[in-house]
Specification:
397 residues; alpha/beta; Rossmann fold; six-stranded parallel β-sheet; 15 helices; elongated; binds adenosine monophosphate
C-alpha cells in the first residue's frame, strides 16, 4: 500500500502550500501550444484553494542550466494558467516567505523557473531550505519530474510536511494497480525503435508479466538474435546476446513472449510505400534493401487474441513506424482492441511514453484507456522498477 499522504490528509487552512507542478509545456514564441499539462494540475490547485490553502506553484521550464535565460521565463505560461484556473495568478521572480504568507486568501502564486538557479538540479540543501521557507506544506503534483532528485522535487519534500497532489495521486494509484498489485493475467506491449533504450525495462518486466508482446524496430533485434536475416531493417546487432538473455529470463519466469510472426516489408521508409507481407521466423532471409516497418496481419490477430485473455495491460512503444501509414496498421489495430476491451470487458490499460501517447491519440482511443501517463522518463523508470526520488521523498516525510 502507498505510504504517501494526499491532500485529504492535510489541514491546509491558512497554510502556504508549495506545489511542485510540471509547467514545462510546449510554447511557440509567446503562446502555449498544448495546455494538457496545465489542465491536469487544475484540480489540485482548486482543491487547495477550497481547503483554505494558498497555492504557490514551483516548476522548471526548459533547460536554462542554472542561468537566468529570459526566453525560458515561466511568465509565458501565465495567460494559459490563468485561463485554465479562471482567475488571476501572481508571478514572483524573487519569492519571499513572509510576503507569501501575507497575500490575500484565494491568491495563487507562480514562482519563476526553478532551474534559473544552478542549485536546483544539484539538489543543493541550501536551495531546498530556501524553498521550504516559502511554504508550510509541500505538495508534489509533478510525477513527470519525480525521477529527478532536484531541490524542488526531492530536497524540499524532506523538510516540510508533504503530500501528493491529485495528479500525482491518480498516477501513482494507476501505476500501482498496473504493476505492484495487478489483476492477472498481466501483459505488456513493448515496442519502439530500440532495445538499447529498454533493456532495464524488459529485464524488470519479464519477472512480473504473464505475457510480453514485443514489437516495433526492437522486435527486429530479437528476430535477428534468433537467426533471421532482417535485411536493412532497424536492428541493433550488438544486442543479440542481450535479446537472447531477455528471452531466456522470460522463459525461466514463465512469461510468454509474443514476437511478430509476420511483417510488412518495404524497400522505402516513406508514407504510402509499397510493401509485401512476409512470414517472420528464425529462417527468414530478407534482401539487403528490405525493411520490416510494421507487424503483419497474422501478428495483429495474435495480439488481439492474447490481449483478450488479459485482465491488465501496460503499453509502451509503437508496434511499427506508426507515423507513416500504412505502417501504422498493427499499432492502430492493437490500440483499438485494447481500448475496446477496456470499455467492454473491464481490461485495465495503463500506457505511457511520448510516442505511445501520440499513437493512442492517432488511434482515437486515448479516452478509452484506464490511464495514460503524461510522464515520459518517469514512466519508463517506473517500468524499470526504479524507485523515483520524488515519490520516495513523499513517503519518507
Ligand atoms: P521509441 O522512441 O523507442 O518508443 O521509438 C518510437 C519510434 O520507433 C517511432 O518513431 C517509430 O516510427 C519507430 N519504429 C517503430 N517500429 C519501427 C520499425 N519497424 N522500423 C523503423 N522504425 C520503427
Amino acid at each position: 500500500m502507498a505510504d504517501w499522504k494526499t491532500l485529504d490528509d492535510m489541514d491546509l487552512t491558512g497554510q502556504r502550500v508549495l506545489v511542485r507542478v510540471d509547467l514545462n509545456v510546449p510554447v511557440d514564441g509567446t503562446t502555449v501550444t498544448d495546455t494538457t499539462r496545465i489542465d491536469r494540475i487544475v484540480p489540485t490547485i482548486r482543491d487547495i484553494l477550497a481547503k483554505g490553502g494558498k497555492p504557490i506553484l514551483l516548476s522548471h521550464f526548459g533547460r536554462p542550466k542554472g542561468q537566468v535565460v529570459p526566453e525560458m521565463s515561466l511568465r509565458v505560461v501565465l495567460p494559459a494558467l490563468e485561463a485554465a484556473l479562471g482567475q488571476t495568478v501572481a508571478f514572483v521572480e524573487r519569492p519571499n516567505g513572509d510576503e507569501l504568507a501575507n497575500t490575500p486568501d484565494g491568491t495563487v502564486t507562480l514562482v519563476e523557473n526553478t532551474r534559473f538557479s544552478a542549485m536546483e538540479e544539484k539538489n543543493d540543501p541550501q536551495m531546498a531550505q530556501f524553498l521550504a521557507s516559502l511554504g508550510d506544506i509541500y505538495c508534489n503534483d509533478a510525477f513527470s519530474a519525480a525521477h529527478r532528485a532536484h531541490a524542488s522535487t526531492e530536497g524540499v519534500a524532506r523538510l516540510l510536511p508533504s503530500c501528493a497532489g491529485r495528479l500525482m495521486e491518480a498516477e501513482l494509484n494507476a501505476l500501482e494497480a498496473a504493476l505492484t498489485s495487478p489483476q492477472r493475467p498481466l501483459g505488456a506491449v513493448v515496442g519502439g525503435a530500440k532495445v538499447s533504450t529498454k533493456i532495464a525495462l524488459l529485464e524488470n518486466l519479464v519477472g512480473k508479466l504473464d505475457l510480453l508482446v514485443i514489437g516495433g524496430g526492437m522486435a527486429n533485434t530479437f528476430l535477428a538474435a534468433q537467426g533471421a536475416q532482417v535485411g536493412a531493417s532497424l536492428q541493433e546487432a550488438d544486442l543479440h546476446d542481450t535479446a537472447r538473455a531477455i528471452l531466456k529470463a522470460a522463459e525461466d519466469a514463465g512469461c510468454q513472449v509474443l514476437l511478430p510472426v509476420d511483417g510488412r516489408v518495404a524497400t522505402e521508409f516513406a508514407a504510402g510505400a509499397a510493401y509485401e507481407t512476409v512470414a517472420l521466423t528464425a529462417e527468414t532471409q530478407l534482401g539487403d534493401g528490405q525493411m520490416i516497418l510494421d507487424a503483419g496481419p497474422e501478428t495483429e490477430s495474435a495480439i488481439e487474441t492474447e490481449i483478450a485473455s488479459l485482465k491488465t495491460l501496460i503499453w509502451n512503444g509503437p508496434l511499427g513506424a506508426f507515423e507513416i501509414p500504412p505502417f501504422d496498421s498493427a499499432t492502430m489495430a492493437a490500440a483499438k482492441t485494447a481500448g475496446r476491451l477496456t470499455q467492454e470487458a473491464g481490461l485495465i490499460t495503463v500506457a505511457g511514453g511520448g510516442d505511445t501517447v501520440a499513437a493512442l491519440n492517432q488511434a482515437g482511443v486515448s479516452d478509452h484507456f484506464t490511464y495514460i501517463s503524461s510522464a515520459g522518463g518517469a514512466f519508463l523508470e517506473w517500468m524499470e522498477g526504479k524507485e523515483l526520488p520524488g515519490v520516495a521523498a513523499l513517503s519518507a516525510s
